[in-house]
Amino acid sequence: MTDPLPDPALGEPFLLTPGPLTTSAEVKRAMLRDWGSWDGDFRAMTADLRRRLLEIAGDRGDCECVPMQGSGSYCVEAMLGSFVPRDGKVLVLANGAYGLRAAKTMGYLGRAFTLIDKGDYLPPRGTEVAAALAQDPAITHVLAIHCETSSGILNPLEEIAEATARAGRKLLVDSMSAFGALPLDMSGMPVEAFVSSANKCIEGVPGFGFVICRRDALIAAKGNSHSLSLDVHAQWETMEATGQWRFTPPTHAVAAFVEALKAHATEGGAPARLARYTRNRDVMVAGMRALGFETLLDDAWLSPIIVTFFCPADPAFDFNRFYEAMKGRGFIIYPGKLTVADSFRIGCIGQMDAAVMRRVVDAAAAALSEMGVTSATPPAAALATRATLAA
Ligand SMILES: *Cc1c(COP(=O)(O)O)cnc(C)c1O
Questions:
Q1: Which residue, 124, 266, 360, 370, is the most exposed by fewest CB within 10 angstroms?
Q2: Does residue 229 sit in helix, strand or coil?
């Protein structure tokens, strides 16, 4: 991390959120120029971006990278609509908001799907996938969420991929909040296609996402899409033929992303990023636990992306006051998304290191004492939730 931002003098807080996140000064500066979308310089940036992403994905020459305008959900919808034939059927593996959103998308697409819903915080296991696939021969594809950002759980992608491949079905992955840090190697894992976006672990700004897929699957996807603007095959065809995006690209976000990709490589690629995020998480979680906070998940399922904490049982604790007290100290945290217990989340990704995470813990301690909270211990019922997971 060179040139640390945000600048507290400008009143800019750190975003402890899983994207948009805190970006570097270089990434921000790359947006201070206008680009013509048809111009050779911009087309070269698009080509560079696609090449760098394929390299991170471990491509051995049989994959393609297709950037798509819009937020991450647009890419999930584009992937489902393009790779699942109209008479296909998807097994959606859900354990939080993003899995459920994928199922809802299938409903909009009007294509067949079936859902394994593990609730708020339990992982879908390979054995369950194998059983569901054996039971229903109509299923053509499985959709898995790599890191379910709503709880922060790191789902067991390898065993899901293995079960899917063994049953002769195809795997689609929402790796939105994982790709660029957690391993997703197209040379070693049977994945047909996955999606991620500019504003997560690559540390760019929002504006577009990308599909990384097998070339033969992409060729076979021609004509599948329900949507003109979300047709991955058509976007690819145009990009291959002209070097351009089909419709107006987010030029500034693309320029920022190329800068973010260079920094990603300089840092040491996905392994180095994973190491920094892991350290961020470990320092932050240890500090929060020392204050009495408890994580929703056991260590085995904790992702290095974002961590869910239970709200303290102490009646003096109020999330909105806690949020404002943290913000006043320069840190934007994230509300929880659980149905089982009150919670909040702290992200570990973006331009932050362990020193910043120590300041986050200090800020949490100060916020608690400002509210008159003497113990951050969660309610007993919340801890009982945790025991279910361990069992
Ligand atoms: C961020 C994210 C998305 C996409 O959300 P958008 O708000 O559309 O960018 C999808 N899936 C997961 C797991 C995510 O973390």
A1: 266
A2: coil
Among 175, 195, 197, 205, which is best to mutate for testing ligand 1, by the most ligand atoms less than 8 A from CB?
Answer: 197
Strand partners, 170: 141
Q: Is the shortest distance between the CB of 71 and ligand 1 below 6 Å?
A: yes
**91 secondary structure, DSSP code:** E
Q: What DSSP designation does 122 have?
A: P
pLDDT tens digits, one per residue of 155-166: 999 999 999 999
How far apart are the CA of 72 and the centre of ligand 1, in A? 5
The string of pLDDT tens digits covering residues 224-246 is 999 999 999 999 999 999 999 99
Q: What is the pLDDT of residues 45-65, one digit of tens each?
A: 999 999 999 999 999 999 999
11 backbone φψ class: left, alpha, beta (φ>0; ψ -120 to 50):
left
Beta carbon of 177 within 6 Å of any ligand 1 atom: yes
Q: Is 155 in the pocket of ligand 1 (CB under 6 A)?
A: no
Give me the residues paired with residue 297 across strands: none
The predicted pLDDT at position 251 comes to 98
Q: Is the CB of 77 under 6 A from ligand 1?
A: no
Name the token pair of 291: 């204050």
Can you list the domains of the chain with their CATH numbers? 8-21+269-390 (3.90.1150.10), 25-265 (3.40.640.10)
Q: Are 56 and 270 in contact, with CB atoms under 8 Å apart? A: yes
Closest approach atom of ligand 1 to CA 175: 13
Neighbours of 243 (CB within 10 A): 14
Alpha carbons 77 and 150: distance in angstroms, whole number? 19
Q: With CA atoms as reference, report the closest residue to 372 among 318, 334, 332.
A: 318
- Pairing verdict, β 334-335 and 343-347: antiparallel
Residue 200 CA: nearest ligand 1 atom is: 1
Hey, which of 15, 95, 143, 177 would you mutate to test ligand 1's pocket, going by the most ligand atoms within 8 Å of its Cβ?
177
Q: How far is the CA of 300 from the centre of ligand 1 (A)?
A: 23
pTM (two decimals): 0.96
Q: Is the dihedral of CA 10, 16, 17, 20 positive or negative?
A: positive
